[in-house]
Amino acid sequence: MKLIVGLGNPGREYDKTRHNIGFDVIDMLAEDLGVANFREKFQGLVGEASIGDEKVFLLKPQTYMNLSGNSIKEVMSFYKLDPAEDLIVIYDDMDLPLGQLRIKVKGSAGGHNGIKSIISHLGPDFFRVKCGIGKAKRREETVSFVLGGFSKDEMKEVEPLMEDAAKAAKSLVTAKNIDRVIQKFNKKK
């Protein structure tokens, strides 16, 4: 059993923003896996599916980004899952160029408040699928940048990025060799 989490903020005002790319990838996965509806549970929206022989839960925490760990910990505890083996988190990363994907097995939060929250509840060992959203031109524009939407031109890079993030998550679920999956998806643009 695996848990695939997409990070984002609930509410229409955050829909389709850079910070919510994790939610968008979960929606893409749900459609691909035939998840018809999500139910409210564990302070989030949860869908169930299978990838290969593995049962998978898709989660969009509804706690707001900075408290994502609260929702994820509830699911992990309830199903007695091991973060190092069973947790895959998909989220935005400003330190990666727009459209670039990076899988990491563990590490620091890198300034991402959602990841900080998860680490504070579960420790640093879990799979991360980082989606490059680029950087704001000036530091003081960071909040409006991450809470802003992608332009039409940017979407040409973002749509394939989201498809790759969904494929990467599925590959991590079924992988016999994690290093091969990481090598496949972490190639430079």
From TrEMBL:
Q: State the active site.
A: 19 (proton acceptor)
Positions that bind tRNA = 14, 64, 66, 113
**Which ranges form a coiled coil?**
none
Superkingdom classification of source:
Bacteria
Q: What is one GO cellular-component annotation here?
A: cytoplasm
Report the main location listed first in the record. cytoplasm
Q: Which UniProt keywords apply?
A: Cytoplasm, Hydrolase, RNA-binding, tRNA-binding
Subcellular locations according to the entry:
Cytoplasm
Under the subunit heading, UniProt states: Monomer.
Which family is annotated? Belongs to the PTH family.
**What does the protein in this record do?**
Hydrolyzes ribosome-free peptidyl-tRNAs (with 1 or more amino acids incorporated), which drop off the ribosome during protein synthesis, or as a result of ribosome stalling.
Q: Supply the name of the protein.
A: Peptidyl-tRNA hydrolase
